[in-house]
Design a protein that fits this description.
Order of helices and strands: HEHEEEHEEHEEEEHEE
Structural class: alpha+beta
Number of helices: 5
Shape: globular
Strand order of the largest sheet: 6-5-1-2-3-4-7
Distance between the termini: 62 Å
Low-confidence stretches: 1-31
Helix content: 25-40%
Amino acid sequence: MRLRKALLVALLSLTAACGGAESDMSAVAADGGPAKPVALWGAEGGFVTPTTNVLRPPRVVLYSDGLVIVDASRQLKLTDAERDETVASMEKYLTGQSPTAEPRSGAPAVTDVPTTVFGVRGKDGKMLQVRVPALEQVADFYPKALSDAKKLMEGLAARAEAGTDYVATRVRMVVEAAGSAEGKPAPWPAGVTEPSGTVDPVWQKDIEGAAVSAIVKAVPAGQQYERSLFKTGSGTLFLLSWRYLLPDE
């Protein structure tokens, strides 16, 4: 009897070691993996400068760990319940919408304005995106669900104002040629890579390490979207801008 019991215990232990351990490892991998965007609101296109077009981050990004980043400059953390509710609402608003929405007949023609971009990660793990041209200008000609999605994201952006500054260890810098720019240029920041090759219409590079501290010191946070005038060692003038990279970039 004792031998039979011992064999049964050993068999159960072996089963747990083989099957159970695999489940535990899967859970750890899922929990310990990098956070992914699960909802977003942004813009693209419009009559903007090349630098703005390259640097422009999503207005709001919600990550799977509850982190909300607004304009790549402010952040707050949602509870699991708030995160799930936000994702469920966005999924409800966007499901069934065309990938590129079209306003109803009678909408006025609007040009040179950004297209609103919404996104939500569905239960299948894929990101559903909906683009809405001129939503702010002709919202009444689109389904109400799209305006509701915008209001939901605007609420997160407003909450982030009372949050904390978002900073990162990686930065995207962008330069434009500025041969005819007015003003006194500053020396090119020491430790920051100078532009190489063709600047047409902009030159960009993602940097990390000591160069991040150098560029943040040269163009302090809060001014990072402004185009500051610098002169390289060879005497070439450039307008320099930057922003912090998001976790998934």
